[in-house]
Design goal:
The complex is a heterodimer of chains A (171) and B (90). By secondary structure, chain A is mostly helical. Chain A contains eight helices and no strands. Chain A has two domains: 64 residues, Rna Polymerase Sigma Factor, Chain: A (Orthogonal Bundle), CATH 1.10.1740; 96 residues, Orthogonal Bundle (Arc Repressor Mutant, subunit A). The radius of gyration of chain A is 18 Å and the shape is globular. With 90 residues, chain B is an all-alpha fold. Chain B contains five helices and no strands. In chain B, helix 3 packs across helix 4. The chains are: A mainly alpha (171), B mainly alpha (90). Chains A and B meet through helix 1, helix 2, helix 4, helix 5 and helix 6 of A and helix 1, helix 4 and helix 5 of B.
Chain lengths: 171, 90
């Protein structure tokens, strides 16, 4: 089980914990929690899905024990408008499609670096919803916040990430 | 934390559109607001480009971070640490 599911689950832990040692510790926590709870695994979900959820929880637990680093305010990363509510700066579409960008090796590093610039409360919601595939209610339950807060943070996180990526992907 | 909808009587601004873009992308807007959105999008190239790059942001983040081809085998010392940890605690 460790060899089969471990590589994919380590990648999950790394998305939340960029430090390799922290991600490895989270993976170890996750497998330990899984072996302890295996008697309660009812087989309604696929084993991989069940392990994925346990790993996400283990990574979030590790994240909570770390000291937060100083962060940029999300407001500084959001789009600006003129007083009449219209855009103040003309924005171009990106020079390549997401599919084209994803084939480039450097895109992975650019996207990871951009996501790491988001304040933690926003970054975690973006990862849970858009990358790990949890729905709004599941994300709210995992984080202990209201569904409305998940929706607001997700939208702001996407807008902020779009602004950061724009500097890389616009002609 | 529900956002108040824009007054139906006034014309939408770029700020209105961007504020409610998540609902538009997820197709969970009231029909009358969707019509107002599409009318604004038809007129505003800024917002058309913004909508496209908002969707592209989600797509490129997913494509980059979910690329499982980059997940190689687990380092052997990590496999051993996990197995030892489970044995110790079981």
């Amino acid at each position: 089980m460790v060899r089969t599911y471990g590589p994919r689950l380590l990648a999950v832990a790394r998305r939340f914990l960029p430090n390799d040692a922290d991600a490895a510790d989270a993976l170890q926590d996750a497998f330990l929690a899984a072996f302890r709870a295996i008697g309660r695994f009812e087989g309604h979900a696929a084993l991989g899905t069940w392990l994925h959820r346990i790993t996400v929880n283990a990574a979030l637990m590790r994240l909570r024990t770390r000291r937060r680093r100083p962060e940029t305010s999300i407001e500084a990363l959001l789009p600006s408008f003129r007083a009449d509510g219209h855009r103040d700066v003309r924005r171009e579409a990106w020079r390549e499609t997401p599919e084209e960008l994803a084939t480039r090796k450097e895109t992975n590093d650019i996207v990871r670096a951009a996501i790491s610039r988001l304040p933690e409360d926003y970054r975690i919601v973006l990862l849970l919803r858009d990358i790990e595939g949890l729905d709004t209610d599941e994300t709210a339950a995992v984080l202990g916040i209201q569904a409305g807060a998940v929706k607001t943070r997700l939208h702001r996180a996407r807008m902020a990430l779009r602004e950061v990526l724009e500097t890389e992907f616009t002609p | 934390m529900t956002k108040p909808l824009p007054e139906p009587s006034r014309e939408l601004t770029c700020r209105d559109l961007i504020e409610f873009l998540d609902d538009y992308v997820a197709d969970r807007q009231p029909p009358e607001l969707r019509v107002a959105f599409e009318s604004h999008l038809a007129e505003c190239r800024h917002c058309r480009d913004y909508l496209r790059t908002y969707s592209d942001t989600i797509a490129v983040a997913r494509a980059s971070l979910c690329d499982e081809s980059r997940a190689g085998a687990l380092p052997e010392d990590l496999v051993q640490a996990i197995v030892d940890s489970v044995r110790r605690h079981s």
